[in-house]
Amino acid sequence: MKYEVPELFKEYEEIIKTTIRKSNEITFKAGKTKPWESKLGGCPYLENINDYPLDEENNPMMFIAQINLSDLVELKNMPQNGLLQFFVHNDDCYGYEYPCKVRYIEEYTTDESKLISENPYEKDYEDFLPFYKEGKMNFQINEMPMTCPCEDFNKLFDGLNEKQENKKWDEFDGAGSRIGGYPYFVQSESEHYKEHNILLLQLDIEDECGIMFGDSGNCNFFISEEDLKNRDFSNVKYDWQCC
InterPro entries, from UniProt (predicted)? Predict the structure, then answer.
């Protein structure tokens, strides 16, 4: 979807256009998923149980989401094929104080007889999940300008009048689940965002699968542009914030 600058902010049109990024907006459909599909929760793609990520104490991590990269379109430097899996530490704070793990699987099979069909560790962490239901992800390409929770927004748009100030959150908040584009920070810009400013995944409040981190919160996974170019997902940064 092509972005149209709101009439109220037309005087900033040229500045706004310089900030435009492509995103893939995510919607969810609750239900069982295939092992290789883009999904929230459920069973990740696994050929061998020994491939399941463990934390620093060798405990199974919490599986959050999986992206089939062939579902995505027009995202700069993003691999066009394979799977990305997102795991966090298993605790009641959704792994906030621990490193996340993002697993990149370059090639995969759709022969289900060769794959693990049920998540062997979900019972260990299901009470801590920030959503209620497994679901399939669907994507829609979008253009979006910089969002006002980003610290650079106020630097670029210095001098907004009172009416513009009152409306900026309606037009530039960045809420919603997506890959690419700009994040929505519930409290303030993440400390990771300056050096890891590519939004690899944002999961925001929604009703279909019951996503919510803490009290009306969301989560973000960030990667640096250089790491994304090199397909190096070993240093992805994870943050979640709530009200």
Answer: DUF1963, YwqG-like_sf
